[in-house]
Write a structure and sequence with these properties.
The complex is a heterodimer of chains A (120) and B (108). Chain A has no helices and 11 strands. By secondary structure, chain A is mainly β. In chain A, strand 9 and strand 10 form a beta hairpin. Chain B contains no helices and 9 strands. The chains are: A mainly beta (120), B mainly beta (108). Chains A and B meet through strand 5 and strand 10 of A and strand 3, strand 7 and strand 8 of B.
């Protein structure tokens, strides 16, 4: 069974940093691109970043503005998102999702999300 | 940047047909994917590449895409279909994934 489980969220002060993780199982991790999508309270889905199966190709949403870094450790079947210089607008549930192909494609399996709260 | 426009809400009686639209400039030239998100849950892929259905998704769910509008159609709507629905495309010009704003489907 395909499973992705996020962790690393929590309460952080404005300007702070967090490293989110997404542990994958049930599929050959290196064969699939992975993505992060966030959802602010009461709002819609907002794509954050995607990384190819090899890790060589990454794309980011414009609002990231160099503050976020997506990476993966294929030996550990784990996806990461380093998020820096957080502001109140970054408060959201961050979802990890598996793509259907090695390069970016639609997302066929999602985790339950990890909540990031930015507040002083 | 590419913009996808969805109606904020759609209401339908049980057993009837619901249609959720997703508008975008020449969206018919792109592949559209649809996600269902029930309250408090993670999104679930219900339609990909305009009209394909993942395993486990009922045949009542179908999709189409032409011109400037893509449509998710749900036949014989059930109470359990009540959810937010999001369309999604890949914008090649910016190398960005784009989501529509979402449509809340209410089953009357």
């Amino acid at each position: 069974e395909v499973q992705v489980v996020e962790s690393g969220g929590g309460l952080v002060q404005p300007g702070g940093s967090l490293r989110l993780s997404c542990a994958a199982s049930g599929f050959t991790f290196t064969n699939y691109a992975m993505t992060w999508v966030r959802q602010s309270p009461g709002k819609g889905l907002e794509w954050v970043s995607v990384i190819s199966g090899s890790g060589r190709t990454t794309y980011y949403a414009d609002f990231v503005r160099g503050r976020f870094t997506i990476s993966r450790d294929n030996s550990k079947s784990t996806l990461y998102l380093q998020i820096n210089n957080l502001g109140p607008d970054d408060t959201a549930v961050f979802y990890c999702a598996k793509a259907m192909t090695t390069e970016t494609s639609n997302f066929d399996s999602w985790g339950q999300g990890t909540l990031v709260t930015v507040s002083s | 940047s590419y913009v996808l426009t969805q109606p904020p809400s759609v209401s339908v009686a049980p057993g009837k047909t619901a249609r959720v639209t997703c508008g975008g400039n020449n969206i018919g030239s792109k592949s559209v994917h649809w996600y269902q998100q029930k309250t408090g849950q993670a999104p679930v892929l219900v339609i990909y590449y305009d009209s394909d259905r993942p395993s486990g998704i009922p045949e009542r769910f179908s999709g189409s895409n032409s011109g400037n509008t893509a449509t998710l159609t749900i036949n014989r709507v059930e109470a359990g279909d009540e959810a937010d629905y999001y369309c999604q495309v890949w914008d090649r010009s910016s190398d960005h994934w784009v989501f529509g704003g979402g449509t809340k489907l209410t089953v009357l």
